Amino acid sequence: MSDLSDAAKRLLIGRPVRSENAGHSLLPKRIALPVFASDALSSVAYAPDEILLTLSMAGLSALVISPWVGLAVALVMITVVASYRQNVRAYPSGGGDYEVATVNLGPTAGVTVASALLVDYVLTVAVSISSGAQYAATAFPALRGHEAAFAVGLVILLTVANLRGVKESGSAFAIPVYLFMFAIGLIAVFGAVRYATGNLPMAESSDLDIVAEPAYSQGLVGLAGFFLILRAFASGCAALTGVEAISNGVPAFRKPKSKNAATTLALLGGISITMILAILFLGRATGIRFADDPATQLLRDGVPVGDTYVQHPVISQLSSAVFEGVPALSVLVAVVTGLILVLAANTAFNGFPVLGSILARDGYLPRQLHTRGDRLAYSNGIVTLAAVAIVLIWAFDAEVTRLIQLYIVGVFVSFTLSQLGMVRHWTRELRTETESGRRSQMLRARVVNSIGFVMTGTVLIVVLLTKFTHGAYIAIIAMIVVFVIMRAIHKHYETVRKELALGVDAEAARALPSRVHAIVLVSHLHRPTMRALAYARASRPSVLEAVTVGVDPDDVADLRTQWDAMDLPVPLRILDSPFREITRPVLTYVRSIRRESPRDLVVVYIPEYVVGHWWEQLLHNQSALRLKGRLLFTPGVVVASVPWQLSSTEGQTGLEDPVRGPVKRGF
Asked: Is 14 a domain residue?
């Protein structure tokens, strides 16, 4: 069984990588861009849909302003990218927003940012994978109704790919990401040329009308219209998610790390802005109609289109119009768009484990998240992210419309606090900097981060106002829960650290006990018992005795007879047990020794069977496990397990093949 599991693990994940080869896993910019930017780039596939969907609530006339909403999103993107270029230069260690907030605003702000980012990473996986599953169901009708199960399968595939290592997964995912850029670039170029020459076809939905909801019967005028525009803007700002992943992933870049990360940020911003604006402007030019409930909101000749109408995503409608007469290009766009939506989750699979490792190092998450696995990836963090995302996908049935409402709240919390932290960082640095050139550079950086703080803070307020009742409150509750858990974990680790510190009692801790009282637990006189007696005698304790519990009088009599016949040089003590218990009499006896001689150390030797199969464990060692668990809570008592390997353990150590079965920490 062990051999089979090891072989399967090696097949899926690959052979272990030595720690000294960590440098070979660093990423060049051409691989880092698809690894860290796939989330932000993938938003091109759904951010325009969300903008048009929100504006359609006010009727057909509201769609006219969609490009201007896109320009507002682009302005925020430019500001955030410029701000984060300052972040990666000032804090290249990989802590990202968490480190910036912790250093400049304090631990509470840092944990707030960390909780927001952790929740947002999980939502990134859930939203991206669910969206990819919806695209797949559109292309393959057999998947309809099974989107959640299909999405779970995609998460598992991504998990396995990332467990193989960052560089390996990045290389595998680079081609689909670059194909997506190429496909959207073709749409932009072909569409612009056909628009300029006056032969741009109209979209398949251009002949439809949109019924406005009663609250927006007057269009976008008034307070309701203003809030609808803000809500569309907030939905479009989903395009900014993923920008922070680069600041968290600076250590994964090749040297010079900060410069390469800043360059990748600039590339990400430029490509994302170009693509989303191209889609929105061409969408308006081709007359695309997109509604939340197309069956009732979309009208043809004044009659609702009904349930038989299939509403294709914005990119699908746009590619069909732009590439009219060339269906192969439309198919290419559909395929690579579905792929990029799935691969967008890869950004979270790179960001979450790194952030989790840093938080574990600082004592806010379990220590296991700080260790690397076979392939030098943070395997425990990868598996944790996948497990939580799967639960979320299943709970929301992979419905993007429901999940998207939880989205982007966390990332703008981190954006805002990070930019405020950078403003304080430059203010502190300016107090001690005297060189004029450097001061000018710092002043410019502070201005950039100040604008970023105002801009992201404004967007955060807009998001909270427009999305709170639509599901954002769930994300906020999740952040609060994660915050409380991380503070509780940190408090536990701090308490343990203080309890274990030497302090003024260092000399007392080094003092030896006055005597060592050794007890060997005996159930039968066999080879494991003889080994335990030999080990106990080899330690040369002050007092050594064998102890058995008298549950069955006949068994006790037989044991006494064998003991005397072998003339063992160790006294045998029999503890009475009128209620046929084993644990309680031993605990009572051990505690009586501690009461009589508090300075004595009591060492209890317990013979244990080592079995080779899981089902054998159920048949052995149950009494030993219960007793050991109780003795561990008794002060002044040391429990020594003396193993005896049964024949079924032969070949189970994993030491025969150091590659197949290493003993290590981590996954």
From this structure: no
Instruction: State whether 365 and 434 are in the same domain.
Output: yes
Per-residue confidence at 139, pLDDT binned at 50, 70, 90?
low
Interacting residues of 551 by C-beta distance below 8 A, sequence separation 6+: 577, 580, 581, 582
pLDDT tens digit sequence for 540-562: 998 999 999 888 888 888 889 99
Each residue's pLDDT tens digit, 581-629: 888 889 999 999 888 888 888 999 998 888 777 777 777 667 778 888 8
- Whether 4 shows a pLDDT value over 90: the answer reads no
pLDDT digits (tens, 9 = 90+) for 435-474: 888 889 889 889 988 988 988 888 888 888 877 777 778 8
CATH number, position 611: 3.40.50
Looking at the fold, whether 247 and 212 belong to one and the same domain comes out as yes
Q: Write down the mean pLDDT value for the chain.
A: 81
Please check whether residue 428 lies inside any domain of the structure: yes
In a domain, 197, yes or no: yes
Q: Are residues 522 and 395 in the same domain?
A: no
Q: Based on the fold, state whether residues 230 and 94 are members of the same structural domain.
A: yes
Q: What is the largest CA-CA distance in the chain?
A: 109
Omega into 256 within 30° of 0, i.e. cis?
yes
- For residue 518, pLDDT over 90 is answered with yes
In a shared domain, residues 453 and 564? no
- Starting from the edge strand earliest in sequence, which strands make up the sheet with 516-521, in order? 572-576, 543-550, 516-521, 601-610, 637-645
Asked if 285 contacts 191 with a C-beta cutoff of 8 angstroms, the reply is: yes
What does the alpha-carbon distance between residue 330 and residue 337 come to, in Å, rounded to a whole number?
11
Residue at 666 is within a domain: no
Q: List Cα–Cα distances, 468 to 215, 516, 620, 629, in angstroms.
A: 19, 65, 55, 48
Q: Are residues 354 and 439 in the same domain?
A: yes
Q: Are 524 and 488 members of one domain?
A: no
Q: What range defines the domain where residue 584 resides?
A: 513-649
